[in-house]
Amino acid sequence: MKLPHLLSFPGIGADDMGYLSVVDQPGAPFEVKRVFWTYNTPETIVRGRHAHHRTEHVLLAVTGRIVVLTEMPNQELQTFVLDRPDVGVYIPPCCWHTMQYSAGAVQLTLASTPYAEADYIRTYAEFRRVCSSQSS
């Protein structure tokens, strides 16, 4: 079973001119099929609160700070603080996750599948029921 973990992407450039980070194959842990971003999220809102049957994600804080909490089917909890645009967190399938944003944070998400509502596990009870067999 794959676990959530941090990924570093190379920063090309210098302090006096700025940086560029690139995600390409084989640098990404999967073939990217969808890209989306989240912005203007109030600091009091917790987003996510779901898992996926098949989709893998990489979450990056393009700007600001994002606190990502993950829970695997075996109830292993991890906290990741994303506050650099060249570091992301890998979210595997069957990983319950939430995100909380600082003011002005922008999250870029790379996904392994096109959007499909049927891939979402929307309630915690369903997550525990569906994914518990994968905790071994």
From TrEMBL:
CDD domains: cupin_QdtA-like. InterPro entries: QdtA_cupin_dom (IPR008894), RmlC-like_jellyroll (IPR014710), RmlC_Cupin_sf (IPR011051). Gene3D superfamilies: Jelly Rolls. Pfam families: FdtA. Residues 6-130 form the Sugar 3,4-ketoisomerase QdtA cupin domain. It comes from the Bacteria. This is dTDP-4-dehydrorhamnose 3,5-epimerase-like enzyme.
